[in-house]
Amino acid sequence: MPLEPLSTPALADALIVDPFYLAISADFAHDMPRRKAVLASYFAYSLGEAQRTGRCLVPQDRELGAAAWLLPRAAAVDAAESAAKNAFLAEALGPLGHANYHRIVEFMAARAPAAVPEGAWYLSILGIAPAAQGRGLGGRLLAPTLAEADAAGVPCFLETFTPPSVPFYERLGFRREAAHREPVTDSEYLIMCRPPCKSASAAA
């Protein structure tokens, strides 16, 4: 059964306040139902990408959210995925949102290598329905992939525009590595990295 359709409305509800997602849905700023539908479509595609080239995790009640990870991929796979995603975005987002997406992603991609260890696994998306937040669900969704990364001895990283989420990630072992002000959103975001847990990798 596809994971995406059940999880994506929760992701849209949870992440609609994030400056990145506001920027890529800017064409629909005056139509909130349409804006959330566009973001749900974006999340559906992104979860599918995570299923193909990373890890996609959902809670038992799939309507409560999801987590999407992207793992390092071969150059040919990366090129094909990037081209397919751009074609999707060009159709799904409005012209302003599509342009914003590329400007933001290019800005962030240029700054990540200075802070992110080579080969790190990328936590692309984590969203929990607002009514279900504060119950430990986000941590439980991330735990399997963090344990897998620890066993493999690889670091993880994420980028966040939402300061209230930082203590949550710090409890999971992520640390602030860099902060930048992104010009499209005029918002600061953090790059956070997590080294592999040595005890877990040693036990493996």
Question: How does this structure look, described?
Answer:
- By secondary structure, the chain is of the alpha+beta class.
- The chain has a single domain (4-203), classed as 3-Layer(aba) Sandwich (Aminopeptidase), CATH 3.40.630.30.
- The chain contains eight helices and six strands; from the N terminus they run αααββααβαβαββα.
- Strands 1-2-3-4-6-5 form a six-stranded mixed β-sheet, sandwiched between helices.
- A hairpin with a 4-residue loop joins strand 5 (175-182) and strand 6 (187-194).
- The longest helix has 22 residues, at 32-53.
- The radius of gyration is 16 Å and the shape is globular.
- The two termini are 32 Å apart.
- The mean pLDDT is 93.
Topology:
Blueprint: H1 4-15, H2 19-24, H3 32-53, E1 54-57, E2 65-70, H4 75-92, H5 95-111, E3 121-128, H6 137-152, E4 156-160, H7 166-171, E5 175-182, E6 187-194, H8 198-203
Parallel strand pairs: 3-4
Antiparallel strand pairs: 1-2, 2-3, 4-6, 5-6
Helix pairs in contact: 1-3, 3-4
Provide keyphrases for this structure:
19% strand, 8 helices, 204 residues, 6-stranded mixed beta sheet, alpha+beta
* Residue windows where pLDDT falls under 50 for at least 5 positions: none
* Fraction in helix: 40-55%
Which percent range describes the beta-strand content? 15-25%
Largest sheet: 6 strands, mixed
What does the average pLDDT come to? 93
Please list the strands of the largest sheet in the order they lie side by side. 1-2-3-4-6-5
CA distance, first residue to last residue: 32 Å
Under the CATH scheme, which class?
Alpha Beta
The CATH architecture can be given as 3-Layer(aba) Sandwich
Q: What's the overall geometry? A: globular
Tell me the series of helices and strands, N- to C-terminal.
HHHEEHHEHEHEEH
What is the CATH homologous superfamily assignment?
A: Gcn5-related N-acetyltransferase (GNAT)
